[in-house]
Amino acid sequence: MSIFKILYYFFGSIAMTSALLTVTTPNPVHAVLFLIFCFLNVSAIMFMIDMEFIAVIFLIVYVGAISILFLFVVMMINIKMRDYIFFDSLKDTTFFSFLCLFLTAILYFSLFINDLEKLNHIKNENRVWFQILLQNYFDWTTYSSVVEDSFVLHKIGQVLYSTYSFPVIIAGMLLLLAMIGAIILTITPNKLLKKQDIYLQVSRNSQNSYFLIKK
Amino acid sequence: MFNFLNIQNIDIVFYPSLNILLNTPENFLIVFILIYLLFVILGKVANNENFTYFSKIQNKILFSKKKLIERIVIITIFSILFLFFSFILMFYQIYLNKVNLVLPYCFNLLLYSNKILFFKGLIFLNGFFCLFLSLDYIKKYYTNLLELTILILIAILGSIIVVSSKNLLMFYLALELQAISYYILAASLRTADKSIESGIKYFFFGSLGSSILLLGISLIYGFIGSLDFIVIKNYFFFSDLLSYSEISKMAILGFLLVILGILFKLGAGPFHGWLPDIYEGAPIPIALFFTTNSKLTYIAFLLNFLELGFSIKTEIQYLLGFTIISSFLFGILNSTFELKIKRFLAFSSITHIGFILLGLYCYTQEAFLWAYIYVIFYCIISWIFWGIIMNNFIVQKKQFISYLYDFANIAEKSPKFAIILILTLASLAGLPPTAGFFVKFSILYNAFATNNFILFYLGIFVSGLIVFYYLRIIKLILDEKKHLNQFFLMNTSKITSAAIIICFLISIYFIEFTAKLFFNNNLFLILFNNLFN
Predict the structure, then answer these.
(1) Which site from A132, B71, B213, B507 is most exposed, i.e. has the minimal number of CB atoms within 10 Å?
(2) Which residue of A177, A191, A192, A194 is the best one to mutate when testing the B interface, meaning the one whose CB has the most B CBs within 10 A?
(3) pTM, two decimal places
(4) Which structural domain, as residue segments, surrounds residue B310?
(5) What is the ipTM metric for this complex?
(6) Total number of domains constituting chain B
(7) Domains and CATH numbers, chain A
(8) Which of A170, A176, A205 should we substitute to test contact with B (largest number of B Cβ atoms within 10 Å)?
(9) Residue B417 belongs to a domain
(10) What crossing angle do the helices spanning B341-361 and B435-449 adopt, rounded to 10°?
(11) How do residues B478-508 score in pLDDT, each as one tens digit?
């Protein structure tokens, strides 16, 4: 085993266990801390496979912003510690567990239903031609061979505003929508609030600004 | 040092001429939404009551006090006009496609063909009618919320891009754009507790569905190497054709998970649990928008997406068959014992989704087209039905029609509505002279023609059972002795009753249209060739 593999399994196992612990711990603060730990390990794995951009984004966005926000919210809300019961009765738990089992069974049966028919299939001679054909279709393999001498950020920057320009616009619309939604759902019109009227302030002059209250 | 001159090697993207790019409804809609937002913000500023004397004068000139209430109506009417205009623009684009022989071209991850333009036009028309019917409701309840129509327009923008997306990344972004505006719309009636509850529920279940979808997308990217539809199609097609290598099971699993996520969002099969709660809590016009728009977009996307996996047909059919059977089962079991009308409509929509998915199950292009015609039929019928619900206010209860026995003896008080209601219920049940019969019959015929006998017999059995609970409501409308003369229905305003009558006329035309398609095979082939080739 190389060092790479050892490190990969190390970080991966820690990430898995901390992800499990986030779900199972009754204390919400502990859960958020485990979540942060999970993100850190995942970003370490991302560094190992040369995806610096995603690793840094994980650190900045998830660890730096969102998880800390979670932590603040959890600390602000007074949640009483208790054993969380997901399903009220035994009947419900059995029903839902059977449903889940049934769904996974359906998915896996549908995957392997074709195998019986394909047992006798013969490999074709067109192997080389097919490989060439597939290579042309694979986006990232051909792409990384073309721009080897630049690193991830450079590649992303080149593609972002040319090929993927429309998704960027749509992401902007998504942010706008989030802003509108947050304002709509939380705003309370306060009639006592004094507001500035810039037009009036600018148009004020010496003749207008004094007047008699009583005669 | 970075080699900036290397850029020309990377990706040569095909950009069509600028005229076509400006004509695209997506860009048009984005610009319209941004300008409209400015208008709404200006309106909000003018609405402020703490104005000093000068701006009070200004305010009187611009918006007098009577007009202050009706600003929301002006905004909705303008967006209705816009939607109708863009519906006409769609026809213009189909015309352009015919005349200039522009083959289905694509740029910026979007696909343009006659079929997709057809889908988009229908989505615009659906938004047009949803807003048109709910004008009265908006005037009553949404005087402060000027952003309502902007949210609806953003949802329509998202659904247009979902329909025409050629890349799974683009598809996911647009889906989220649509879904988040849905969550906000569900919670938009802030004074009602149920509305907020339904918004939060929708948020949780919608994000669960999209997480399943994301898992599928990431599996596809990992094992095929791209998110582009053409690459996925070629991967499945060539590995099946040349039998060089087996199609990797994980890629198939990803494909199935994407379909599963969309079925979750549609509320089909065993994933229907969240649907009735949300329909019950959300405001009525918005519940109407959810039912019709989500079905139009997701089924259209499934039509595009299922074409890619033609060589893994058996696997997909296994999943779809399971959802069809369970959606028949749950839909019938729940809707027979339901008394609340919105929950009843939600449960009955689950059985209709079962029939639509039966059309997809057959996996022939003709069956796909019939499934989409079924969706259009369902939309028209639900315009009428929900339109009647949201425009009739029971004065004594101070409430909209919310229980099934509120329909009791309508035939005596307002016979016009009774006739319309009975005909729509008959067509939902699938009784012969109506459009519902032709559509249901042709889907069952397609199931028979493709040798799916089990689902064919099940479909006949279910369509027999469905008739029971629609006939029960018809009986309630015509003569019910328990609730005799109990309630009084308020008259609707002229605009909305005109809208309901227009929808009814459209539905009558639709009967003729489906009957023509049904009996005249040539006409069906002409429509089919125009859309699918």
Answers:
(1) A132
(2) A177
(3) 0.83
(4) 25-532
(5) 0.84
(6) 1
(7) 1-82 (1.20.120.1200), 131-186 (no CATH)
(8) A170
(9) yes
(10) 40
(11) 877 766 555 556 556 777 778 888 888 888 8
